[in-house]
Amino acid sequence: MPYRIFQDRKEAGRLLAEELLEYGGKSDVVILALPRGGVEVGFAMSNILKLPLDIFVVRKIGVPWQEELAMGAIASGGIQVLNQSVINSLNIDEETIREVTARELQELHRRENLYRKDLPALSLTNKTIILVDDGIATGSTMRAAVAAIRRLAPKELIVAAPVAPPYVYEEMKKIADRVVVLMTPEEFYGVGQWYENFNQLSDWEVCELLRKSRKETPGKGHEILTN
């Protein structure tokens, strides 16, 4: 089966929005984007659906001597999710977990402050959350984000992405209330192969998209998260 190539993240966002039109303009729905690429997709969706856009930063807590292996993750709001099976199998002590977590928390705060500047986070409790990225490769970041957001008691959690491998798509269906993925190609070597233009966003561009979205769709009916 032939699959299309997205022109850019804006086009991908517009096509995703068309699959979620029933959520347009609702006061209890928030689009939550994973920086950096997901913010451009989310911005396009926000414009069409007239929904507020916010970011959700996730940092992997890597095993110190094998950093590509995650023993957990920390996300916006300081929410920590630990993989006890990895921790137990490698006999990782609490002090090591605290040290690595503290380092990643510092980086998470740095990124959030960089992206948000003076923009407060929106409350996610009892809201329908559309969690978006520009594609899902392995699913590790998205899984961590879903686990963290579940701690905030959303009403509904939707995972949305333009493209993902079939097995990742099936995994997402097990952890989200709804999954919207436009393409699930078997031959998947990376998210970038499905875009004509896959230029990396700068931190400045993320800031500007978030700020512009907040001006255009300020989120009426959405209380601000202040804690």
What count of structural domains? Answer: 2
Number of helices: 7
So what's the overall shape? globular
Stretches where pLDDT is under 50 for at least 5 consecutive residues are 220-227
Please provide the count of β strands. 10
What order do the SSEs take from the amino end to the carboxyl end, as H and E?
Answer: HEHEEEEHHEEHEHEHE
- First and last CA, distance: 48 Å
- CATH architecture grouping of the largest domain: 3-Layer(aba) Sandwich
Helix content: 25-40%
Any key phrases for this structure?
Rossmann fold, alpha/beta, disordered C terminus, 227 residues, three-stranded antiparallel sheet, five-stranded parallel sheet, 7 helices, 2 domains, single chain, Ybab, Chain: A
Which SSEs are present, and which pair or pack?
Layout: H1 9-18, E1 29-33, H2 37-49, E2 53-55, E3 58-63, E4 66-75, E5 79-82, H3 84-89, H4 94-116, E6 121-122, E7 128-132, H5 140-150, E8 156-163, H6 166-175, E9 178-183, H7 203-216, E10 224-225
Helix pairs in contact: 1-2, 2-7
